[in-house]
Every structure is written in structure tokens, then in C-alpha cells.
What does this fold into?
Amino acid sequence: MLDALSYEFMQNALIAGILVSLISGIIGSLIVVNRMVFLAGGIAHAAYGGIGIAIFTGIPIFLGTTLFAVVAALFMAFVTLNQKDKIDTFTGLIWAVGMAIGIILVDLTPGYNVDLMSYLFGSILAVNREDLYFMASLFVIIIVVMTFWYRDILAVSYDSEYAALSGINVKFFYTLILILSALTVVIAIKVVGLILVIALLTIPIYIAQNLSSSLYSMMIISGFVASCFTIVGLWFSYSFDLTSGACIILVSALSLMIFMIFQKVK
It folds into this structure.
């Protein structure tokens, strides 16, 4: 794969993969400990509505997807905090409606023949410099948020009632986690696609969860593990001319199986 790094698109793909992996390690840990996996899945599929809006209006894909995903996250935060008994219903609703809006808008776009596979299963080899700037900016934002509010987020994630009694604004931090999850989903779609994004946000975290004793160490380990999966997946993709996103997830899943077998034997 070293010879492939002489190409700019492979350099961009590797940088994007590592950035997304590190971000997924941090936010994926928060998603898992806050039991938001289903909500994140809903946001991921609803984000297709943003893709459709971007294609129909001619605005950048990242911008349209980001705005739609953030709105979906805010809606889910409102429902979760105010009508907990209807979370599943509304998550399924926004999941289906978002995708339906995206598909209809793509159909209505005159003269546009979109390759749905690139959004469903990722197109990491098509990452450009502007995409890298967006990913790097999100990574910096997440690092700043976690640096200043780590203790508050930790309290909200593990014991929201205690956090509320301690004067922490639980609703604000819960909403913030969902918004960061939405932004992470948007950039992860570029790497593995909206169908596979949840696997990237959960498989490395499961492994890290069994190797760590704190949320902080879980984030670091899962980011490292996800980066390894991404690099190996890219190598398989380049070597055998396969879809990059699918290779990354299959490498992750196979590694998880080996890890679980090792744990069982041990």
C-alpha cells in the first residue's frame, strides 16, 4: 500500500480515515454509554434527507447533510427529554421520513444521475481537501468540548440524576452529545456510508470498553482501534479493488469476533 500513498487521493483517504476513526472513538463512546445507538442510527438514515436537499438545491453535500442531521438530532433530543415513552416511534418516523425526503428530492432533480452506492456504503477515495478541513475542524471542536466539559459529560453519561442534583444542565449536555453525534455521523457517511456508520461507532467501542477502566481511556483505545481497522480496511480495498467502507467494517467485525473468542478462551 506504500506505493499507493504517492497518489493524493490515497493520502486524503488515509488522513480522512484516521480523523473519522479518532472522532468516532470519542463520540462513539458517548453514544454507547448514553445508550444512544438507536438514536444515532436514526440520525444516520435521516441524514439522507440532507443529501437529497443538497443535490436538489445545489448546495454542498456536507452543508446540506450537516444541517439536516443537526435538526434531526435536536428533534430527537426534544422527544427523548420530554416524551421518553415515544422515543422508538419518533426515531423510526424520522428515520423513514428523512430517507424518503432524500430519495424524492434526488428523483426530482433534473438531469442528475446520482450514485446511491457512494452514500450508502461510503466513498472515502473521493475525499477532497475541503472535506478534510471539515473533519479536522470537527475534531478540534470535539477535543475542546471534551477538555472543558469532560466531568460534566461524564456525570450526565453515567448518572444523570446525580448530575442534575449537582447543578449540571443535563438537557444541555444531552443535546450537545446528540448534536456531536449527528456531526460525526455526517463525516462517517463519507468514509463507510450511512448503512454501515453505526458499526464504526460501536464495534471499536465494544472492544475498548472491555480493555478500559474509564470513559477517558475508552475514548483513546477505541480511537486507536478504529484507526487500525480503517488502515487495514483501506489496504484490503486497494489490494483487491473492493469497496473501502465495506472492507473497513468487515475488518472491524472479524476483529470483534476474534476478540470475543479470545476473551471466551481466556
